[in-house]
Amino acid sequence: EMRTKHNMFRYGRYEAKWKAPKVQPGNSIINGNYISTLFVFRDAKYKHWREIDFEITGDSPYSVTTNVLSADNTDRWSTNIQDARHIDTSNARADFHTYAFEWLPDSITWYIDGRQVRRKTGNGVPVPDKSAKIMMNLWIFEDNWGFGGKEGYNNHYPMESEYEWFRFYQWDGEQTYPCAEMSTSCLTSDDMYLSGNNPCDGIENVGTVYGKPACHVSCHR
Question: 10 Å Cβ neighbour count for 190?
Fold first, then answer.
């Protein structure tokens, strides 16, 4: 998994040239279970769950999911906090494609290979307005394969998502994020809530989870 430090990105264009994993070597058609992603995520979700996604899952090489999530004071996913759409596409496992989304105060627009595939305004699940981390990862949905494809028994490991490049362009109207010189000077205490990624990044996890202190762990290199 790759994730940036701090919740310090907001309005702008996010794009990556990316190829999803093959479930088995040399075969881009056979299905399995995985979730390969490009997204922004407000960490930690216990206070403000905010997320804008591209997800490629192991149940089809010809479909990409776009999603936006918004909820407060919960860590439980439900259909009520998301607005997901499945987009038909060419084989996402066989070749690299360029995936992008433009996040603005009143809309989110998703693109694949320069073609607009979806635009969402504030109806229903609102467009997020809080800063977030940029994330890319690959994961398997537990042993029951409840999401990401029901044919996990076909999985051949290791699998890998390939990202040729990633780019972020700040929207001209964004006045706050990222902070100047990529510092933490513009971040609020809410932005810093449980902001540490791992024990070796030097960022203290400040805040509580349901009234209890966050876990404290040590870095061993």
Answer: 13
